[in-house]
Structure formats: structure tokens, C-alpha cells
Fold each of these.
Amino acid sequence: MLRVDRKKCVGCGECEEACAFEAICVKDNVAVVDPNVCTLCGACVDTCPEGALEISSNSGEADADLDLWRGVWVVAECRGRALAPVSLELLTQARGLADRLDTALTAVLMGYEVGSESQRLISYGADRVLLVEHPELAAFIEEVYGNILADLVRKERPEIILAGATAMGRSYIPRVATLLETGLTADCTGLDIREEDRALLQTRPAFGGNLLATIVCPRHRPQMATVRPHVMKVGVPDLGRKGEVISISPKEELLKHRSRVLESVKEQAEGPNLTEAKVIVTAGRGLEAKENLALVRELADLLGGALGATRAVVDAGWVSDRSQIGQTGVTVSPKLYIGCGVSGAIQHIVGMQGAEIIVAINRDAEAPIFNIAHYGVLGDVKEILPLLIQRIKKERG
Ligand SMILES: Cc1cc2nc3c(=O)[nH]c(=O)nc-3n(C[C@H](O)[C@H](O)[C@H](O)COP(=O)(O)OP(=O)(O)OC[C@H]3O[C@@H](n4cnc5c(N)ncnc54)[C@H](O)[C@@H]3O)c2cc1C
């Protein structure tokens, strides 16, 4: 709740002016808060010249003493028994953060018969691995994974927890944040440390991708963030690196859950996986008709690549939403990205700007995609694509 320190408040009214919700007013020279209207946005706290306002938590376990929370954790993710690449990306990034904070980096590895991946986590930077293995963890059940992680956090008190913004991470990491009564910034694209107060600076696109917001969680611990796969680079493993593996048996009560997994079916995808493809040929609205998608598919097949799409193409029903690249689709970082009739809206660019080489085909010289493209082809995509396909075939004999 928002508290007013009556000894510090001078009744200047700055807070009243700053409040967009009319939740605070000055009466008898002191600020008075209406808790039913206050949204805890913090605008008044930032404005108060006397430092008389403070937002504090009622439940406050995490608020009690921030200095009790130390260490950086990465929640490793396994697909079957193998680590998901995002875990290695996170470890690489987290190693740098932990070094800045002069603290240990821990990987949490949950699953069944996944222990053989512990050394890999250490080679990518973990100082220790908390290994939680149990047959009940063979199938992913968010309730169970969430309860176990929250239990570990309560015991060990890490100051930072990072996880992948994958289907798995997105489903249970918010649950953990809720159980721990702390904040979570989802889908971060950048992470940094403010050394003076050990705050994690969590940057992510906001307001439809039109600006980048840097978010902090100043009064609660742990500071939790999820990061999209392929946004951060994977480091080089140090195969001789030593670390500690601590095996933990989960308590029976943490394994209880209300759902039952009947069967797991692997999705049959057409062509290479979009997020792992080295070459992506992307269809934009500039293709003008669904039939012209065949040209994009043909080029993608010739280059051994995957077909991507903008949201405009997905919304038109030309391809399924699994092909969508961007803010509300997947993030990709291929070696080669070819945009065919793609304008380069910010919501698309945030999902593909990590590509090593970007080629844009567009008939509008002012299209924003040309601002980030390494090679631009100005022309009608329906004319350029057949020429390109023909040339590649000819070169290959
Ligand atoms: C909250 C939010 C989230 C979003 N998330 C995403 C997302 O995840 N991914 C995404 O892609 N979009 C997303 N969008 C939509 C995004 O803003 C754009 O509308 C979309 O990316 C545009 O797709 P496009 O480039 O295919 O189409 P357009 O913007 O219509 O561009 C078509 C381009 O093709 C060119 N062109 C036309 N005809 C030809 C031709 N014959 N030959 C060559 N060039 C031609 C035009 O000059 C133009 O530049 C989101 C929007 C919002 C508000």
C-alpha cells in the first residue's frame, strides 16, 4: 500500500498534481491517500521532493530484507531429456550478470533422467546445479514444476531468476512469481545490472513495440524475468569447468496436482523448424495473393530454409500462425533472412533483427525494412522471385 510519512510531508501538493487517478489530496497540510482509488502506480513517490511517500507490501516476506537475497538463478528447460537451447543462451547472459554482482550462478534442472545435462550447464557458466529428478517430472505439469521452484526459492533466496519465454516458461513462471508475491517481466530483450542497488534492469518492447521500456522490481525479491529464445547469443562452453551438482528429492506434497497427462504428441511441422532455420524466406502482404506464396516456398526449399510470415499474411489466412515472426510470433536469428513484400513494421522487426544478413525485396524505396536490410532489391516481388529462383537453379546446374 501507499504510505505517507507525516513527519516528512510538507503538504506541497506535488503528489496531488502527479496523481492521474485523483487518489491523493492534501488536507490540513498533509497528503491523504484513498486506498480504494490508488493503483500503486508510483508516480507520486517519484515526484515527492521530501521522500515522504513509499509503496510497501502488506504481506512483505520478500520486502523484509533485500540483503538476504543473493545469487542469480537460471531455470533450465529440457525437451524430453535434452536441454533446450534457450537455457544455454540464458546461462551465457546470466554469467555476466552474476559476475557484475560478484555472486554465484545456479542452474535449476527439473525433470526425469535429465541429470546427464548438469555438466553442460556448468560448462556454459553455472557454478552449481540444483538437480530435481523424479518420475512425476517426466511430463511437464505446471502446478508441480511451479510448486517445486517456489519451494526452492523460499529456501535459497536468489535475488534474480531468469527463464525462457517458451511455451513452458510462459505457463509456469508467472505462477511462481505469484506464489512468491514478486514481479515478473515477460519477454525481455535486454538485461543489465544497476550496481548501486543490485537492481536487474529488464528491457522489453512496450506499447505495441513502439518503445523499449526498462523495468525494475525495486522492493521485492526475487527479480524475475523471462527472455525469448534466440534473442541472446550462446557463449563458448568451457568443457573443463568445475561446478557442484546438488541432487534434491522433491517433497511428496509438492508433486500433487489436479491434471493428468494422457499422451504427448510431437507436432509434425512442415519443413525446417522456423526458430532453428539458418535461412528464412518471409512472405509479406506485398505478395498480393495466396497463390504467390508458392514462389516464397520454392525459394525457401531451394535454399534449404523455412517459410516465415508477417502477421498480415497470417491474418489473411495464407499460412498458419506458427509461421509468424515478430512481437506476437516467434523470434528468429537465421544466417540469412529474405523479406518478400514485407514493409518492416517495428512489431515484425523485433522478431528478426538478429538475422546475420537481411535481404529485402520491396517495390517502395521508402519501406522501413530498407533501413535495416544489408541488401535491398527495389521491384515487384512477383517479378524478382522467379528471376532469383531461375538464377539459383542455373548456378547449381
Ligand atoms: C500489438 C501488435 C502486435 C503485432 N505483432 C506482429 C508480429 O508479431 N509480426 C508481424 O509481422 N506483425 C505484427 N503486427 C503487425 C504489424 O504492425 C504490421 O501490420 C505487419 O507486420 C505488416 O505486415 P506486412 O509487412 O506483410 O504488410 P504491409 O505493412 O502492408 O507491407 C507490405 C509491403 O509490401 C510492399 N509491396 C506491396 N506490393 C508489392 C509488390 N508487388 N512487390 C514488392 N513489394 C510490394 C509494400 O510496399 C509494403 O512495404 C503487430 C501489430 C500490433 C499492433
Amino acid sequence: MDRERCLIVAVQLSSDNEENDMEELEQLVEAAEGQVISSVIQNRQSIDNRYYVGQGKIEEIANYVKELEIDTVIFNDELSGSQIRNIEEIVEAKVIDRTNLILDIFAKRALTKEGQLQVELAQLKYSLPRLIGLNNNLSRLGGGIGTRGPGEQKLELDRRRIKEKINDIQNLLEDLGKVRETKRKKRMKDQIPIISIVGYTNAGKSTLLNALVESEYSDEEDAEHKKVFSHDMLFATLETEVRRVTLPGGRKAVFSDTVGFIKKLPTQIVEAFKGTLEEIKYADLIIHLIDINDDNLQLHKETTTKLVEKITGKEIPVLTVYNKVDKIINEKITTMSTNDIIYISAKNKYNIGYLLETVDEKINGSKSKYSLLIPNSDLKSYYWLYENRKTDNVEFTGEGVSLEAVLYDNEKEQYGKYITGEDNE
Ligand SMILES: Nc1nc2c(ncn2[C@@H]2O[C@H](COP(=O)(O)OP(=O)(O)OP(=O)(O)O)[C@@H](O)[C@H]2O)c(=O)[nH]1
Ligand SMILES: [Mg+2]
């Protein structure tokens, strides 16, 4: 099928100095498999109540639509039902707003039952106050961007039935949430710390998780099976994925990768994806991953920080990690990593070891390498260390097993009687 021909429209408010808004909107359209033919930006003091842009501008847009054979006009903010109706009276094309566009991408990406239900819930909540506008829109212009996904036929239902449906889905999601809670409780019982990788969409979160998976498995094929989807595309990830990783000292941790953030993330999505997003709440540590080449780095960083604060509602330690340093030719920056700010390349696996060392230290405290001699009468201590801590130079002697092992500070005492030396590398 030919890609839908789209015209994108944004208002640049004099109050904010956002740049590259159009670039992001274009990427969103691409993620929805549309083709951006042209774009219109209007500088304004405020959004127009009737047409989003001014009346003159909307008439101009109507002309472009005819000239350029545009199928769909996409607006960079959420529109009200009446704005949609008003615009449709003038512009002969399908009218889509930013929320609807993002919901559409989510609908295409949702693979699990829970993901699909979350998207449907968000779509229903979005459509409820816009039934009339959307219905006109649909019956006149048919499918494509903004009309896909489980919400499709539901738009024809009346309000009451939509509300019932919203209720049903909320109940189903609650049940699915319980399943997740059980899994989480098990992890907590096993006392495995959780590290959540969060960040703006396309920062490289999934690539980082895959780099960590690779560090975990020596066999390439095993690693391949554990990898998650990563792609140069906004919202490649929609579900939370978790992977177990061994930290340098030998203790295990669980890293999670979840849906990326974006500015003006529709409230319907934040609400509907509460279950998925709230996983971050249970993290022991948050890795805030940032694309160091991002033109809107500061704004995107703040967007993520604010959303994380809103979702977790509490202070969780954050480790700031700048990614994609391979793209900048600045050797200084790559040697600047500290305990709180780390520079990596997830793609080239640069500094991943340092990142893991830092995470280990933050979660488990300090550790050291010791030489130990474990008597044959306590071989089980040896086996335990061999399985659970980083060990080296193992030798079986008449007196027992001599080896080097990493011990965390809080377990030094337990093995104190076997320690024959400390190795301060
Ligand atoms: N050059 C370079 N590209 C990277 C690096 N890390 C990730 N990328 C690329 O950035 C793009 C996005 O990566 P993902 O891992 O899918 O990003 P994400 O944060 O999971 O994105 P969403 O799931 O869409 O929110 C992909 O094309 C990656 O190959 C890196 O260190 N260097
Ligand atoms: Mg991802």
C-alpha cells in the first residue's frame, strides 16, 4: 500500500523556545508509516480555539491539501472535538492530532495482551469526548493512520457502551497487574535488585539492555535469544522487558527496559500504561539514558526527569548515562565519567564495564578481591563462592582450595577466617 501523504502542522508559541519540534513530529509520522509531504509552522501567542492555527492559515492549509493531494493533516498538539469538527469543515482531509498519532503508533506496536488492552483503553478515553468529530471523520474518509488498532469499531459505539468497555478493560488490566505483582514479589523475595533503564524515546535503552545481555552470555547464540527489539524509530519498545545480569562482583541484578518518553506524552497513555510504567517505582536504581547528540538534549532530559518523578512519586537514586558517544569526536568527554555521570556507547559497548562497576557499587557497596584458603572440611563455601562471586586462580591443594574471590564489604567478616591476603589491584 502507498504510504499516506501527510501534511504536518505545528504552532510555535512565543512562550517556549523549542526547536526541532517538526523533526520529532516527522519521526512520529514515520513511525506510523506515513509520509511527510510538507509542513506548516505558525508563530502565535496562543493556540486558536477554533482552528488551532488562525483562520487564514487553516484556509492556506486547505489549499495545500488540494494542491499536494494530501490524505491526512497532522497537528502537533491534542485537539478538542470541536476543533477537529471546525477544521474538517474547511480542510478536505483526515484530521489527526498528536495524541491520536502516538496512540496509533502504540496500537501498531502493542504485542502482548496487556499492551493491546492498555492501548485500547487510552484510545477509548481519547475518543469519548470527541465522538462526533471522530465519527464524521471516519465514515467520510476510511482507515489509515489514527484509525487502526483495537479501538477501530468501538468509535461507533455510543458513549454509554464506551464507558462500559472502559470499565471492563480496567478490570482486566487490574487482573493482569496482579500477575505482574506476583512476579515482582518473587524477585523481591529473592532480593534481586532492580535497575530501570529510562529515557526519551530512541535514546538507546533497548540497545543498552542488549549490550548487557551480551556481557552476560559467553555463547553468542544464547545471547541472541535474550535480545530485545531495538530500532531507529520512535517507540520501538512498548512493553517492559527484564533481563538478569551478573554484576562484576558476582551478585545478580535485574535490568528493565521500558517504553520511552516523549514531550507532551498524552495523559491517556500515562494513565492507561500505569501498570507498565509503575514498574519503575520498584527500582532500586534508575539509569537515565540520554542521547548525547540530541539537539534538544536539555528539554528531553527534563521531560524524562519530570515523568519519572510523577510516576514514582518518590526519590529513587538516579545514575545519568550519556549514550552514543561514538558519534562525537571528543576524546575528552569519554574520559570524564564519574560515579554519577557516565559516558557510554551501547552500540560499540564502550564503557559498559565501567557502568556495571558503578551500578554494583551503588547497589551493593564496595568490594575487594581476596586470596582465600578454604579447608576441605568447608568445600560448600568454596562451591558457593565459585557459583556466586567472581573467582580466579582456583587450586586444589592438600590443605584445601586456594583461590582469589571478590567479596563485598559486608561479607568480609563471614569469610575472614579463610582470607590470606587482600589484592588491591
Ligand atoms: N551510534 C550509536 N547509535 C546507537 C547507540 N545506541 C543506540 N543506538 C541507535 O539508536 C537507535 C535507537 O535505539 P533503541 O535501543 O531502539 O532506543 P530506545 O531508547 O530503546 O528507543 P524506544 O524503544 O523507541 O523508546 C537504534 O538505531 C540504535 O542502533 C550508540 O551507542 N551509538
Ligand atoms: Mg526500546
Amino acid sequence: MTEQELLQAASAVGCEAGVCPFSAVADSLLPCRAASRLPQNAASVLVLLFPYRMQAQPPKNFSRYAAVNDYHTAAGAVLTRAAEALRLQDPDGVYEPFIDNSPIPEVQAAVAAGLGVRGDNGLLISDRFGSFVFIGCIVTDREVGAVAAKRRGCLHCGACRKACPTARLTDGGECLSAITQRKGELTDREIAVMRQVGTAWGCDLCQEVCPLNRTAVSAPHPCFTVYEDALTEASAESSDGKAYGWRGKGVLQRNLRLLKNSE
Ligand code: B12
Ligand code: SF4
Ligand code: SF4
């Protein structure tokens, strides 16, 4: 298997992709259940991008990433298809797909594969799509001599740090995205930040202000076929299988109630 053949398998499922050696991430693997699926002699990682920005305007009260159909399922199916095609081509090779629930630190892998840079907002910024991309990986035991391309860098303009409502990007505060996903009671301060931003799920502030996203193309991967513009009580009732539903409907209902009470 050559790097070119791996990239062709990604291109066949509509993804821009790159390859990095497994050694580029081996020292920073994340603890998660999916780690048990890692191939024993992992040698290379095929990293695939799934752009998801659909509309010029962001959704009204939640993050863009949750406005499309759940990427774990949609992009996960695309990754499974690509891995199956690779196994057909190379029956002795191991090809294991991962997305999000993954031992691979995906931003780091994508940078090592030459797909973009890590911005000061912590996210992968692709030259073409900006940061509104999901990252998926196929880990293989095949060695390929991958050479990462040189990329345009983060501008270090400070806009993301300035926009961050919890100082996560400056003083290590907790990300608002994590706060909106947390079960149980929120503190008065956390509720105030949620209301100030007006989000019932996730946070996009450090991406919306990034100048590199202004010039990025909006070309969502064809696996994203659904788009929601606002979260409502009805969304909470039918949140199974949605990126905003994985914590159960109670968390979203609580967030919507907190936003409503501030009107
Ligand atoms: C857990 C997780 C989260 C947690 C963060 C946990 C944490 N570490 O703080 C929460 C819920 C907050 C989160 C939020 C979001 N996430 Co998230 N998340 C992940 C996940 C599953 C693991 C990330 C991880 O733990 N990495 C390891 C740690 C060590 O890396 P790190 O957090 O980046 O930390 C590095 C730097 O930030 C820095 N650092 C760490 N602490 C501090 C503190 C300060 C002060 C500074 C300056 C630097 C710094 O050093 C670290 C080592 O390099 C990945 C998927 C994966 N398998 O990689 C997706 C992933 C990173 N998330 C993703 C997305 C889309 C988001 C959100 C945009 C969703 C949203 N709109 O709300 C936000 C963005 C927040 C942000 N600006 O980073 C995408 C990112 C795609 C991209 N373009 O990069 C990923 C890759 C999922 C995917 N499959 O596409 N996420
Ligand atoms: S807002 Fe500026 S500093 Fe932050 S990631 Fe974008 S270019 Fe880099
Ligand atoms: S997602 Fe929001 S809270 Fe999290 S780092 Fe970005 S701006 Fe800060």
C-alpha cells in the first residue's frame, strides 16, 4: 500500500486527506474505550477531513457542529466504507476507522498529516475549509513514507483569545462547550456565561471570529444532509442520535430552560 493509494481511498469517499506516521501520535494517545481497537502494529494514520459549515449565518442558539446530522454516525459510516475498500484492496492489511471517540489526538494527527495548522483556539485550521471540519482517522499496520506539506500558519491575531467567554484560551478556564454538556447543576457564573453567549449547546465563538474562517470555502461533505437552525423543546424530545443528544435530553432541556428564563 502506498501513500497515494491511501489518499485515493479517501478521495473516493469525498474527503481531503493526509497520512502521518503512527509515531507522530504514539506518545499522546488518549485514554478511551475505542483504544482496544487500535491495530497491534499500528504504523500509519490516514487522516480524513469532513467540512460541515452549511450556512453563512450560524444557527441561532447552538453550535454549527451539532446543526448537521450527527457526525459520529454520518462521517463514521463514510470512514467504515473507506476502511472496507482498503481491506478489499489489501486483504492482509489492518484498517481500523475512528472518529472523536478515538485514542488518536485528532488535531495533532491532522497537523502531522499536513492538513492544516493548530490555531491558537486549539483547533485544526485547514487552508481550504478553515476550522469547521471534523477529523476522522483510519489506522493501519502498513508503513507508508508520508511527507507532510507546508501550510499557512495561524495568524496569532488574538481574536479567538479575546472572544473566549471563559478565558479557556488564556488562563485555562473550562470551555463553554464542556459546560453546556455537563449534567447536574451549573453555577451562577456558568449560567451567566451561557446566557451572555445565548447558546444551548456548544460554543463557536473562537471559530466565528477567526479571520481564516472568513476566507474558507463552505463545502460540506455530502454525508451531512440535515440542517437545524435553532434548538427548541421539540429538538430535545427527538435528540436521540443527534450530536446534542448524547448526554440525554435532560441536559438540553435544562439549557433551553435557563436561556428562556433570561428572556
Ligand atoms: C474532549 C474533547 C473536547 C472537550 C475538550 C477537552 C479538553 N482537552 O479540554 C470539549 C468538550 C471542551 C471540546 C470542545 C470542542 N470540540 Co472537541 N474534542 C474532544 C476530543 C474527544 C479529545 C480532545 C483531547 O482531549 N485532546 C487532548 C488534549 C491534550 O488536547 P487539547 O485539549 O487540544 O490540549 C492541547 C492544547 O489545547 C494545549 N492546551 C491545553 N490546555 C491549555 C490551556 C491553555 C491556557 C493553553 C493556552 C493551551 C492549552 O495543550 C494541549 C496539548 O497539545 C477530540 C477528538 C479527539 N479524539 O482528538 C474532539 C475535537 C478536538 N473537538 C472538536 C470540536 C469540533 C469541538 C468544538 C468546536 C465543539 C463546539 N463547537 O462546541 C469545541 C471547541 C473548543 C476548542 N476551542 O477547543 C473537533 C475539532 C475539529 C478541528 N477542526 O480541530 C475534534 C477533533 C472532534 C472531531 N472528531 O472532529 N472538545
Ligand atoms: S483567531 Fe487569530 S489567533 Fe485565533 S486561531 Fe484564528 S488566526 Fe489564530
Ligand atoms: S469554544 Fe468557546 S469557551 Fe471554548 S475555547 Fe472556544 S470561545 Fe472559549
Amino acid sequence: MDTFTWGIIGPGNIATEFAHDLDLIKTARHRVGAVLSHNLDKAAAFARKEDAPQYFSAINDFTNQAHIDAVYIATPHPLHYSETLHCLQHRMPVLCEKPLAMNSRQAKEMVEAAAQHQTFLMEGMWIRFLPSIGKLLSLIESNTIGKIISVKADMSYKAPYDPGSRYFNPVLGGGSLLDLGIYPVFLTHLLLGKPATIQATARLSDKQIDEACAAVLSYHNGSYAFIESSLVTETARKATIYGETGSIHIGTPWNEKPSGIRVTSYEGGEQQYPCAWEGHGLQYEAEEVYRCVRQHKLYSNKHCHRFSLDVMDTLDAIRRQTGIVYPADKILR
Ligand SMILES: NC(=O)c1ccc[n+]([C@@H]2O[C@H](COP(=O)([O-])OP(=O)(O)OC[C@H]3O[C@@H](n4cnc5c(N)ncnc54)[C@H](OP(=O)(O)O)[C@@H]3O)[C@@H](O)[C@H]2O)c1
């Protein structure tokens, strides 16, 4: 069986889940081969737990010495840009956590670097590869609810208030939109494409990042979407797609392992589809990276660069309207 070796940058919460989910993959053997942390002891501890032979505390050592097939970047958002560029320059295929970058300009540069260095890059929008999203797309494609008229989706996590945490600290990319709102934005792009107009509002903290955010998106064909994200309230965490003949409802939490998918016809009748898989679900995006890298592709057709850039444009537009500003934006100016 083929063995695919991952490097991990940022051995935090999601990297721990990722490493766990790699063990669930049956089509090839996926292992962690190298770990980079700011703290060598932490890198060593993660490497020991994952049976990884290499660990580092400096990115130059990591990119020069790690023997890996691809790297998973799982640091706070503001680090995605510089770490991705560094890895691409060393021709390491990159799976970079969402959001791909802090803003469109950074994301564009990252995509250009992937082309320049002929190296694979994909944003870790893991839900694109979940069986639940696959089922949703097949229901839409088979015309189960007719043409889509509107989409309603929200995502929240009532984070314990800590001004230094990555949820509330602008230096670490705090705010609900980039961390959670990106999921409803992703869903609307997947189903309706790029919006024609956006009307957004946000509850800003004294640090000019959004504790909560909401937007109405409108499309040239007359469709529209309502989206919301929050770090300070608990919202429904559901997604509903309303079509001409019925609706599709993805249960809580719609962007993780939902309670199920329900299709309702306006004329009566209901169909339920269960959603179940092992682990968190990160194994599906890892398998996509494996397939792409083995086929020498520079991007995934399922979650391509153009899609990530379009989503980033929408996030930028919402930020412009609501006044969400990050130090990372100023550095670029
Ligand atoms: N796909 C998903 O379901 C999902 C879920 C949660 C988060 N995410 C994304 O993954 C990224 C990381 O989230 P997380 O929840 O895993 O964060 P986390 O637990 O705080 O881990 C982030 C890691 O980044 C490293 N890091 C480097 N510089 C840092 C700094 N200045 N401050 C804090 N940590 C720093 C830390 O490792 P060292 O100190 O050891 O270097 C830390 O372990 C975010 O971009 C987030 O959007 C994705």
C-alpha cells in the first residue's frame, strides 16, 4: 500500500483532530512524518504521539529537512500567508487551513506562488469533501427541490471571552466572520456562486473585529441568501436551502457532522437522510490532497483556487462594509 507522509505546522486543536483522522483512511497509509511548532518540546511531544521521526522549531529547518509529501498548515489565520509562501517556495505541496489568508491580496499572492513554483495548494475547506455536502449537491443536481430561491445558514461558537485568544485577538485573526462566517459564505458560493450585491452588518469589539456578523447576499438571477456568524451568541447552526418545489434542511451542526438531511416537498412528503462517518471528517480533504499530489496536480477541481479567491472577495466585501480591520491588512498597504 502507498504511504503518504504529512508535515504538520501548528500542532494545536485542529492538527490533533487531523492526525487522528488520517488513521481512518483506507485507500493509502497516511502518517505524520514531521512537526513544526514554535516550541521544540511541544513539537517533540506531538511527534512522539504520532510516531513522527522529525520535529522542528524553525520553519527554515522544517522546509530544508522534512521528508514529507505534503504539509498541513494549522496555525492561526494571520500565519497562513507567510507559512504557505515559504512552503511553496520549497516546493512542498500545501493544505492550508481556512481561511486561506486574511484578505484577497494575500490569497492571490499565494495562488500565484503555487503556479510559479508548480506546487499544489488547497485551502482546507474540509466540509467541501464531507459526505453531507456531497449528498446536498446530488439532491440539488437531481432537481429534488427545483431551482434554488434562497439559502439561510449560520454558524456560531460561544467562545469563552479571552482577549488574548485567537477568537478575540486581532493579531491572531480574531472575529466570527473569518473563523465561522466563512462556512455560510462557502455554502452560498457553492450553491449560488458569487453574489451581485452584499448588505452586511456586524457587532464590532473595541478592537475592530466582529463578535458577530450577518449579511444578505443577492444574485443576478433573483436568488438571495441570509448568513450569520457569532462568537458571542448561540445561533441555530443550521442550513436550509429553499427551492421552487421544496426545501433541504441540514441539521445541527450543519457544517460538521449534522444530525441529518431532510428534504421537504411543498406539496407534502418528507425524506430523511442520515449523516454518519467516523472521526471529525478531515480524512476526506486529506484523501483529496493525496489524490491530487499523486497525480501532480496544482489544485483540486473540487475546491479550486478560483473558488477560494471568490470566497475571499466576499469576505473582504463584508469586512469593508462593516469596518472589520486587521493588522495584516495594514502591513500589506
Ligand atoms: N477545519 C476545522 O474544522 C477547523 C477547526 C478549528 C480551526 N480551524 C482553523 O485552523 C487554524 C488553527 O485553529 P486551532 O483551533 O487549531 O488553533 P490552536 O489550537 O490555537 O492551534 C494553533 C497552533 O498554531 C501555532 N501558533 C503559531 N503561532 C501562534 C501564535 N502566535 N499564537 C497561537 N498559536 C500559534 C500553535 O502551535 P505552536 O505554538 O506549537 O507553534 C498552536 O498550536 C485556524 O486558522 C482555524 O480557522 C479549522
